[in-house]
Amino acid sequence: MRHSTRRKKKLVAQGSGKNSVTLYYQKIPAEQFIALPIEQRYCLLLMGHIHHELNWIQRMAFVATREAKFRHEAQRQAQMMQSLMLARLFFGKLFEFSKLLSPQNSLLRQFITKNYRPGDEQSGSTRVAELLEQFNTEKWIRMGRNKHFMHYPELNDVRATLEDLAIRWDLEIYHGSRSTNTLYPTSDVFANYAWFRLVNSEAPMTGLGEALDTLTTISRLELSTLEESIGYFVDGNLMPLNQNERVNLKVTNSKENTLTYFHTHKKV
Questions:
Q1: Rounded distance, CA 41 to CA 44, Å?
Q2: In 3D, which of 88, 221, 197 has the Cα closest to residue 146?
């Protein structure tokens, strides 16, 4: 849930401690929520669910790509595997949201059009069009979703990559004493070059940079669209956003979070 822009700025300005965050909790009574048309309940709950997935994947991708001092090349390769796997999953989920918005009679499309800026359906319609245009412009995302992000490729989908002798095809394997520590770095090179090639067939590694720029743009659009639409609807139909309970949580600094592939199973 997101506060409207003006209210959110006012509330955030109150600040939080160095290792704490401030949340603003609302609880809409069940009888009030259930009184909404089922279509509105569907949109509210589904959009919150989508927001959770996109927000978490984005956060994990950030943690996975954080630079660290590795003692062995295996750790660097594992970090790269994790971060690009999350990037693929992120692209797939972003595309799935766009699929729900595409039909003119889409319930989510209608909900966002009406609630993104209350009383200004043109703004909501423009935001939906802006989101969909990202996928119309970057047509490789659809193919990536179908062949690499949410599904596995068939031979013809990756033939050009396998025949690319500019790639160093040393087959590397780290066998772990437990399967959770086993790593196949060359398999990751294979999987990623295949979808990089969709972005830029002439220079696949350049395609990676282009893809990450696109990922940043689309994720910001989608997350802000979800939060603003939910927040304005709640504020105007269920409970004013400034009617809330302040909650302070002690948390870890994001810079302290890690996502390591190799780990021990020994008890501390």
A1: 5
A2: 88
The residues near 6 (Cβ < 8 Å, ≥ 6 apart) are: none
Token pair for 172? 């590397």
pLDDT at 254: 76
pLDDT of residue 160: 95
Q: 5-12: which pairs have CB atoms within 8 A and are 24 or more residues apart?
A: 5/228, 7/241, 7/242, 8/231
Cα–Cα distance between 59 and 61 in angstroms, integer?
5
Torsion from C-alpha of 195, 187, 85, 183, nearest 10 degrees? -170
**61-72: per-residue pLDDT in tens?**
888 877 667 779
Question: Whole-prediction pTM value?
Answer: 0.87
How much of the chain, in percent, has pLDDT values that exceed 70? 92
Confidence of residue 268 (pLDDT cuts 50, 70, 90): low
Distance CA 89, CA 101 (A): 19
Q: How far apart are CA 195 and CA 157, in angstroms?
A: 9
Mean pLDDT of 201-228: 94
Here the tokens at position 233 are: 């609807």
User: What residues contact 135, with CB distance under 8 A and at least 6 apart?
Assistant: 95, 98, 141, 142, 218
Residue 22 is given by DSSP the state: E
- Residue 249 backbone zone (phi > 0: left; psi -120 to 50: alpha; other: beta): beta
What tokens were used for 169?
Answer: 């095809």
- What DSSP state is assigned to residue 71? S
- Give the number of other Cβ atoms within 10 Å of residue 121's Cβ: 15
